[in-house]
Amino acid sequence: MVKRVFKMWMRYSALTITIGVFFSVAACGIAGKTFESEKNSAEKIAPLTDIWREELAGHDLSEFERSVLERAVKTGRIDQNDYEQAHAKYLQCMTAAGYDQLKYNKMPDGLYKLSDDSVTDANYFDKSVECSEGTTRVIEADFRDQQDNPDRYKDPGIVAVQCLRDAGKVDKDYTAAEFNKSVKEVAAGANPQDAFAFPVSGSDSQVIYCLSLGGLSLSGDFDSEG
């Protein structure tokens, strides 16, 4: 018997915006391509420094956000410490609003993810959006894109498969086209364990992380039991 109790979370970034799962429509692969050929022919998105300059010119930024982006334009990257400060400012706001039981896990890319055992309520989302203004709303999305997609691939499936390959979770024949097909199957209701050609377990944090890079952020119990 397979438990099918799992959640697919919403995430916002400069690369993709979707509900539940987020993957690019342009991510459809061509049958017969190898992963290397997919990368070689892949469409790229704008350099991060160009995006940061646009944000500085067009966004209503806080003094903190503006200082972070100005440094990033000069150095070519957002420093981990700047992201840590953004997260700390966000937490300070949430704590002041009464959310003092929030727990976070630090992911391999240096970002924080809210733990499933955090104490929230019906007003949490609205307060989170409010507290992100001027703190993490811009900085976290930009830092995520920097950390997760440094080569600026438009297709998040390529980013995910590279992560899986680097971690030894898939063999060299596995492609982004296969990955994107599986993501669509999960979006249509398939259990992640059935959809992917590699083991997917909620206890394997590396696989869960790689899946998130490809637009699929899973939480909950989807492991098999006898």
Automatic annotation (TrEMBL):
<protein>
    <recommendedName>
        <fullName>Lipoprotein</fullName>
    </recommendedName>
</protein>
